[in-house]
From TrEMBL:
InterPro entries hit by this protein: Menaquinone_biosynth, MqnA
CDD domains per record: PBP2_Sco4506
Gene name, Swiss-Prot/TrEMBL: mqnA
Record's protein name: Chorismate dehydratase
Residue runs in coiled coils: none
Source organism of this protein record: Paenibacillus thailandensis
Pathway: Quinol/quinone metabolism; menaquinone biosynthesis
């Protein structure tokens, strides 16, 4: 990497990540940020098109030999999430789905659903990956997984469908929290520019702490851009956990163990963290 390469920072292009990124001012001569859906960020970070990014925790696990977690940053929950939904025409308990359409934007929740189908329900449906369009997904499958903003809009409008909150079901199954997204840095970037990465890490932590302690600006932005009640957005953001705390880490470790057991991950995952003074 050249000395003066711009550091590119990936942001999740969904409301769930606004408490981390809203109001962040890092762009300039040496840094730029881009907002994409999680699967695209996962690909870009692995390809070296980004140096630091929010990403699916599953994709971190797949590439953990090339990445380090930025401590204290996450999108997680202990229980309900309100934006990770499995929609089905019939109840799963009485009418098991034979074919499930998975949003192509997700990595963590796609595998969370597979874990829950297999280990909680004892089901082995066929899976297909599709763009997040619920109508089209349900033309081709008995159930559909959506994440992020499309999941929230579908939850508001499709009261005719059965709906399972994946964070709630995971909590019922395991008693644990779960980390859906993390923020990671490429190990080569952490080695090349420890000070710059440390600066970005600090800026993200401070920005997140400010937004979490005063949700008004992100709630106002969500009402403006997505509609819906202020009370919905306040409890949505209030219900998510952004600080990668021990309950979220414990849940992520258990998720990785299930994923490995079921052949969804090739290896055991050891979570490794960026530390400014000793980053590798
Ligand atoms: C809470 C959410 O968490 C997320 C789920 C992800 C995934 O399934 O890969 C990735 C990032 C987050 O967007 C959400 O999408 O609503």
């Amino acid at each position: 990497m050249a000395d003066r390469q711009k550091i590119s920072i990936g942001q999740i292009d969904y409301a769930n990540a606004w408490p981390i990124f809203h109001g962040l001012r890092l762009d300039g001569d040496y840094m730029e940020s881009v907002a994409r859906v999680p699967s695209e960020l996962n690909r870009m970070l692995a390809a070296g098109e980004l140096q630091v990014s929010a990403m699916s925790s599953y994709a971190y696990a797949v590439n953990s030999d090339k990445l380090l977690l930025l401590p204290g940053l996450s999108v997680g929950s202990v229980g309900r999430v309100n934006s990770l939904f499995f929609f089905s025409k019939k109840p799963v308990d009485t009418d098991p789905p034979e074919r499930i359409a998975l949003t192509s934007t997700s990595a963590t929740t796609v595998n969370l659903l597979k874990i829950l189908m297999e280990s909680y329900y004892g089901l082995h449906p066929e899976y297909i990956s599709m763009e997040p369009s619920l109508d089209r997904m349900l033309e081709q499958a008995d159930g559909a997984l959506l994440i992020g903003d499309p999941a929230i809009h579908a939850f508001w409008t499709r009261k005719d469908l059965h709906c399972i909150d994946l964070g709630e079901l995971w909590h019922r199954f395991t008693g644990r929290g779960m980390t859906y997204a993390v923020v990671a840095v490429r190990r080569d970037a952490a080695e090349a520019w420890p000070d710059a990465i440390g600066y970005i890490h600090r800026a993200l932590l401070d920005n997140m702490a400010g937004n979490v302690s005063n949700l008004d600006p992100v709630v106002a932005r969500a009402c403006r851009e997505h509609g819906g009640e202020e009370s919905f957005w306040r409890s949505y953001f209030g219900g998510l956990q952004y600080d990668l705390n021990p309950r979220l880490l414990e849940g992520l470790e258990l998720y990785c163990r299930y994923a490995k057991e079921l052949g969804l991950l090739e290896r055991d995952t050891e979570l490794a963290f960026f530390r400014k003074d000793k980053n590798l």
